[in-house]
Amino acid sequence: MRRFFYFRAVVKRKRMFGTQKKENKQFLGVDMENKTRAGNNRTLTLTDNEVKLLRQNLLTIENIFQNTDITNKTINGDILAILPFIPNEFADLIIIDPPYNLSKNFNGVKFNSRSNELYDEYLATWFPEVCKKLKPNGSLYLCGDWKCTSSLQRALERELTIINRITWQREKGRGAKSNWKNAMEDIWFAVKNPNDYFFDVEAVKMKRKVIAPYKIDGKPKDWEEEENGNFRITYPSNFWDDISVPFWSMPENTDHPTQKSEKLYAKLILASSKQGDVVFDPFLGSGTASVVAKKLGRNYCGIELNEEYCLWAEKRLALAEVDKTIQGYSDGVFWERNTLALQHRAVNKKAVNKNKTPANREATSTELPLFNINFEK
Ligand SMILES: C[S@@+](CC[C@H](N)C(=O)[O-])C[C@H]1O[C@@H](n2cnc3c(N)ncnc32)[C@H](O)[C@@H]1O
In whole angstroms, what is the distance from residue 126 CA to residue 365 CA? Predict the structure, then answer.
């Protein structure tokens, strides 16, 4: 009888919440034991086996030397200890998403909010060194929020030439009763030589729905009539409102507290690097810069203090062997938010025309066939 009530309760619970996946391990300080996930939650997880295997890929202060090839590597260590092992003028593109001047817990390592002067001092400990790693014709992007942006600008002006500042309307953010919700970030764009840097605007065009379809002589003016609506292909501005932060139903999502989305980094990488170039991220987090670089045919290297984040990055890199899709970027253009169904329809139609498998197919699970992947590559 007890069993009957138990199964009835389980069925009822499944009906209400969907199937729940339960994590069953304690890992590097995170209590995964009590973490349950909704059935359609695609947040990346690691099995014990994956941890063992992926750990072997990491470079650390113990196994890195002056002549170690750091191309396509994730380096687990403190930026200050690792930078001396990175050759100068090694990167074509550097993307930096440092701890902002906020109190934030990165898997047990707390970064504490401080005065602007002290944050300037913090930047001075690593930023000039990082700039040395940039090629003479290289580009650098530096992310921040309103609070640390003046410090970032000061640090940039000392080392490089600022070309522009992108405002990213990131949508999600915590509301406060006595303040405006913090819903935007800055991404500074700077170069070593303003007369010699690479920028491919054609690679980052956007596909937008046409609200007012203007016609001349009955013909669309700068837009196209398609089966799924009217669209215009436009050049991007420095205001980005088409990118949300990764969330739990997206396959790229991890438990990293400040993960950037692949779509955002895809724009930076496509505009400011070529196939085969090297993308370097000294605060790699969950690996977004390396993963997107790999998906887009670039080389990469990243430094990250936290081992678990490095392992998430490695798993994402392994998954990128088999799935190169970037949510929000397909068919050579960036799509607006909430257009996944339209993107699928457009790409599938093309694939059917070419008699191919749909290119924009998404992985249905984040489980990784690790044993089929050659990590030596
Ligand atoms: C803002 S997050 C980067 C998130 C990343 N862009 C992503 O998409 O996941 C900053 C990262 O810097 C790492 N970090 C902080 N201090 C560091 C240090 N001294 N050396 C290396 N990494 C550090 C933190 O652990 C954190 O993951």
Answer: 38
